[in-house]
Design a protein that fits this description.
- The complex is a heterodimer of chains A (189) and B (889).
- Chain A has helices spanning 3-11, 15-37, 46-57, 65-95, 112-132, 134-145, 150-157, 161-178.
- Chain A has 8 helices and no strands.
- Chain A has one domain.
- By secondary structure, chain B is α+β, with helices and mostly antiparallel strands.
- Among the domains of chain B are: 3-56; 92-174, Phosphorylase Kinase, domain 1; 177-380, Transferase(Phosphotransferase), domain 1 (Orthogonal Bundle); 388-533, no CATH class; 817-889.
- Helices cover 64% and strands 6% of the residues of chain B.
- In chain B, strand 1 and strand 2 (93-102) form a beta hairpin.
- Classes of the chains: A mainly alpha (189), B alpha+beta (889).
Chain lengths: 189, 889
């Protein structure tokens, strides 16, 4: 079934359509990622994945703004799922080889294993936030996982950037607090 | 999640919204109040606010920043890295011994055996924690390029991969040597010997750069010198493989892996790297090599702030200040003789090093080859090229600062002129015809590329030995337009239009006109006369024609009105109307011009905007109309209005505001309010000097205006130093056109009035002969200059000489212009004045007056001083003749 139709049906409350929509977006993001790995690294951004999924799956002009918002929300959620699934797989794969102890004195990238754990912790915290305030967690999905700019989200959701910014700070503070303030790596250096 | 929890969250959430916006004092007051009300709530809120304040912002950068490899590796989750114990062999290499340990891992001496041949390599085994898959992938990408690097002074890359335990490694030719700085110290090399080494290093880097490989991480420890004194550069291309390349801008780990001491500012800022990035590092290495210190003492904090604008001290100065111990640490046994080394470095070598260390990449040498070439020049005692900024830098800086329409002239100024064409073009793009924005942008890029590549680059002193002037460059570039933009009429039109404007400002009127005509023709042929681009080109053509072919200009504008949109506020229609008004001013139909300007003013301001070029054009035409009709009060009003507008839009110090400040001064001068006029012209001068520097043509022009006002104030001696610099500049820069002649007239008068009559005469004669050469002997344009010589001769008592010249001027003028032209009438007045000073020439005077007094009456009116003088002379001459007649009887 056409993604465009799925979106419309999902928005109308059709749970089966919503499920299929998620699956198809998830699959598409995955194949996009696969194709892009061969390309230049600069293209490897969550943003471009989500945007490209939009243009590939949905014919933009056939949908209204609300549908567009819905699509991006779904895509961002799929992106989150994809990243978390992947982190899980890596952790599962590593367990056999024993814990990874790394010196982090290098200025280079953090070890992947630690990062995977952090992502899972973030996912957990995000679930708690979702239970309290679904709008905030959706915002985090779109911004953090979907890679959308606040201004884009503002347009999509028809909200002022200012109020979104406040929400973003709040969500960020919540997650930060949940993660004990230390769990997320600081900026390199 | 129960209802109570949700309700509590909503409460916290609302309070967060409220308190997040407050300043610290208000916030803590509010929190204290809450504390009394509901301590638990206050605590929760405080924790959230603290978290907000403490947040490091990692979430803001998105998942790709936190986990770039995850996003990337999504497609291949099965690629896992097993962790196994430490190796004795890696890949095909057997590890011999540990050479060193660094931040990135260990370096081993290793061997590989292939048949009888044992190859020794330096094998770098990178730390765990670096992303092996990613590095391997990039390594494969880069290897083919790196394999092509084959140079005596480059240690080649031999192999690379991921070790059995999952650590990335790479192997390169083993160099048994010392790091550059240590070698130089241990051998006690002289500055000259150090430069000789540096030249070889530049050659190596240049070789790589010619194959499009930028090193990115040059530093003394990456440059080893072997026992034979041959330097070898290590780790080519490695920085790119190891870093998250600066281009992708996602993370800064790449930049952070570099050695900040030698990293160029653009690397620290995470901007794209180029060949000039290596030039910076080479400069930093040379700096250290020469004086023992790094060019910048940057703290980590300064790096974060992007504060990379520290000025670099000259290496010779650093060395001069160094203690003997410090000097010994650099020069080894020669340390005691640091003054001699400092002397050797001081001057050109300092200049070269600092040129390589410029903050903006475009101001440095373009690549290692250029730096090496200049070092060679220094070694051979020839003139170095490092002095001026590169053209592209000037272009950028200028485009940023916008345009100013002062004089045109020398090669220096002409750089700016090209940019002006570009700026004008970009401005036109920006405001007009938005529906074709994309195509326009593409065209604009093409134009800009053309100007920077074909025009500016050819004038870049680093590219060619010849410091070609931009006029020459523009002329040369003209030849390639047709071929380069064949079948792209829109781009060809835009390029030709930009060339036309640039050439016009460079004073090259004829080729400018040709380009403007060609631009219009190519666009009209392809897109028709009503196309917006065609209409714009027509406006440019009209403006250029105005200066030379008034009638054709008028025809171009009038014809254009037929093609322009019918609406009174159509942009093309407004432009043509402006042009026609300007022509009316020239043709002494000032009132008509003023009327039409008043009619279109609201539309001009609405369509193009207050403070737009068109708006200023309008004010300019209006001011000229008033000035031409001697309505200096109104002239002053317009100048002040425009000045205020320019200050408002561009800032008080902007060159465009300066122009009008200067005009205010000129208007005041014309009102004979000389004391008042001195204020704005001096202010203009002060700002121009500060903003543009003492040598800038605009500054020199501002000097001239001060000089003229001082002359009016009869402060002749003081005026000299203000007038002479622009004359000297004109001569030195070989400025074309007739402006230099006008400047010389002021100089000659200054000499005349300060009693240096011989010098004045020499200058006046020079002016006359130059005018004949430049403007054509006997041409209408040359005659006013001959006139100045005539006046000088007359004033200094050489009446006969003056008369011969004046009669010739009148005859030439009658030939060059329509008979009885107003200008000829003015020349005739000079002759009359000359004759009137000689009582014995009454008959000749009467003859002249008989022809010309009626003309003066016609042109100047009864109240004009010339008419009054003429009538007086006529009467006096008649009386004298009558007297002589009666005496004869």
């Amino acid at each position: 079934m056409e993604v465009t139709e799925l979106i419309v049906q999902a928005r109308a409350g059709d749970a089966a359509a919503a499920g299929r929509l998620f699956e198809s977006v998830y699959a598409d993001l995955r194949s996009l990622a696969a194709r892009q790995v061969g390309r230049m690294r600069a293209d490897m951004r969550a943003t471009s994945l989500v945007h490209e999924a939009w243009f590939r799956l949905a014919r933009p002009d056939a949908l209204q703004l609300k549908d567009r918002e819905h699509f991006f929300a779904v895509a961002a959620r799929a992106m989150r799922q994809l990243v978390i699934d992947h982190a899980r797989q890596r952790i599962a794969g590593k367990r056999g080889g024993g814990a990874v102890a790394t010196e982090l004195d290098s200025q280079l990238a953090h070890d992947g294993g630690e990062r995977d754990q952090e992502l899972l912790a973030l996912d957990q915290a995000l679930r708690r936030l979702e239970a309290l305030d679904a709008h905030l967690s959706a915002l985090v999905e779109m911004r953090f996982f979907g890679g959308l700019e606040l201004s884009e989200i503002a347009t999509l959701c028809n909200r002022s950037e200012r109020s979104l910014k406040r929400d973003w700070r709040k969500a960020r503070a919540f997650l930060h607090q949940q993660l004990g303030g230390e769990a997320l790596p600081a900026d390199s250096d | 999640m129960n209802e109570a929890e949700l309700a509590r969250w909503r409460r916290v959430s609302d309070l967060f919204d409220e308190l997040a916006e407050l300043d610290a004092a208000e916030r803590s007051a509010r929190l204290e109040a809450l504390q009394r009300e509901d301590a638990a709530l206050a605590r929760e809120l405080r924790a959230l606010l603290d978290a907000d304040a403490a947040d490091c912002g990692v979430l803001d950068r998105g998942v790709q920043a936190l986990a770039p490899t995850i996003v990337e590796a999504l497609a291949q989750p099965e690629a896992e890295i097993p962790d196994t114990p430490a190796p004795v062999a890696i890949g095909r290499f057997r590890l011999v011994r540990l050479l060193g340990r660094g931040g990135m891992g260990e370096v081993y001496l290793a061997e590989s055996t292939q048949g009888d041949f044992v190859q020794q390599v330096a094998l770098k085994l990178l730390k765990r924690g670096m992303d092996s898959d990613e590095i391997l992938r990039r390594f494969v990408q880069e290897r083919r390029i790196l394999a092509q690097l084959n140079h005596a002074h480059i240690a080649g890359l031999v192999d690379g991969g991921v070790s059995a335990e999952g650590r990335p490694y790479y192997a390169m030719e083993y160099v048994a040597g010392e790091p550059l700085t240590e070698y130089a110290r241990s051998r006690g090399l002289t500055p000259r010997e150090r430069v000789q080494l540096m030249v070889l290093i530049c050659d190596a880097v240049a070789h790589a750069q010619s194959r499009l490989v930028v090193h990115r991480d040059l530093k003394p420890s990456n440059i080893l010198v072997d026992g034979d004194g041959q330097p070898r550069v290590l780790d080519f291309g490695i920085a790119k493989i190891l870093s998250d390349s600066a281009e992708d801008g996602l993370t800064r780990t790449g930049a952070r892996a570099l050695s900040p001491a030698y990293a160029a500012p653009e690397q620290i800022r995470g901007e794209p790297v180029s060949t000039a990035t290596d030039v910076y590092a080479l400069g930093a290495v040379l700096y250290e090599l020469l004086c023992g210190r790094l060019p910048h003492r940057r703290s980590a904090a300064a790096l974060e702030d992007g504060d990379t604008d520290t000025t670099v001290e000259r290496p010779s100065q650093v060395l001069r200040r160094a203690s003997v111990e410090e000097a010994t640490a650099t020069y080894g046994r020669r340390g005691g003789d640091r003054d001699r080394a400092a002397r050797e470095i001081g001057g050109d070598l300092d200049t070269i090093v600092l040129a390589a260390l410029k903050r903006e990449p475009e101001r440095r040498y373009v690549n290692a080859n250029a730096l090496g070439a200049d070092l060679r020049r220094w070694l051979e005692g020839r003139t170095i090229s490092a002095r001026a900024d590169t053209a592209t830098y000037r272009l950028r800086r200028f485009v940023r600062r916008h345009r100013f329409g002062v004089l045109a002239g020398s090669a220096m100024l002409l750089f700016l002129v090209v940019s002006l064409g570009l700026a004008l073009w970009q401005a036109a793009i920006a405001r007009a015809e938005r529906n074709r924005a994309t195509e326009q942008a593409a065209v604009a890029t093409a134009v800009s590329n053309f100007l920077t590549e074909d025009v500016i680059r050819s004038a870049n002193p680093y590219r060619s030995k010849l410091d070609m002037s931009v006029t020459q460059a523009l002329m040369q570039a003209r030849g390639s337009v047709a071929q380069r933009f064949a079948a792209q009429p829109r781009t060809e039109g835009a390029v030709r239009r930009a060339l036309a404007e640039s050439l016009a400002l460079a004073g090259e009127r004829a080729p400018a006109l040709e380009e403007a005509r060609a631009a219009h023709a190519v666009l009209a042929a392809r897109f028709g006369e009503r196309d917006a681009d065609t209409l714009l080109s027509r406006a440019v053509l009209g403006r250029l024609l105005q200066a030379v072919e008034e009638n054709e200009a008028r025809r171009v504008y009038e014809e254009g009105l037929n093609y322009a949109g019918a609406a009174p506020d159509d942009p093309a229609r407004l432009r043509y109307t402006l042009g026609l008004a300007s022509l009316d001013v020239e043709l002494r139909k000032e009132d008509q011009a003023l009327q039409s300007l008043a009619a279109i003013e609201p539309a001009v301001r609405r369509i193009f905007g207050d403070g737009s070029d068109e708006h200023f054009d309008l004010l300019n035409h209006r001011m000229r109309a008033y000035a031409n009709t001697d309505r200096y009060e109104q002239t002053l009003v317009v100048a002040r209005e425009a000045l205020q507008l320019a200050r408002q839009h561009f800032g008080a110090d902007d060159p465009r505001a300066l122009e009008w400040l200067q005009r205010e001064g000129i208007a005041l001068r014309l009102l004979d309010r000389h004391e008042e006029a001195l204020v704005p012209v001096q202010k203009t001068l002060a700002i121009a000097e500060a903003r543009l520097g003492p040598e800038h043509p605009a500054t020199l022009y501002a000097h001239l205006q001060v000089g003229i006002v001082l002359m009016e104030l009869k402060r002749y001696e003081e005026a000299g130093p203000h007038i002479d610099p622009i004359v000297e500049y004109d001569r030195r820069a070989k400025v074309s056109g007739d402006n230099p002649l006008t400047h010389k007239v002021y100089q000659a008068r200054q000499r005349q009035y300060t009693g240096r009559v011989d010098e004045a005469r020499r200058i006046f004669e020079e002016i006359n002969s130059q005018a004949r050469t430049v403007l054509g002997a006997g041409s209408a344009q040359a005659l006013p200059y001959a006139q100045t010589l005539g006046m000088f001769l007359m004033q200094t008592g050489s009446h006969a000489e003056a008369e011969t010249l004046q009669r010739k001027i009148i005859a030439d003028s009658e030939k060059a212009l329509t008979p009885g032209h107003v200008n000829t009438a003015k020349y005739a007045f000079d002759l009359a004045e000359n004759l009137s000073a000689q009582p014995d020439r009454a008959a000749d005077l009467l003859a002249v007056l008989e022809t010309w007094l009626p003309k003066w009456e016609q042109f100047f009116g009864d109240k004009d001083s010339r008419v009054i003088d003429g009538r007086k002379w006529q009467q006096e001459a008649k009386q004298r003749l009558a007297l002589d007649g009666s005496a004869a009887k």
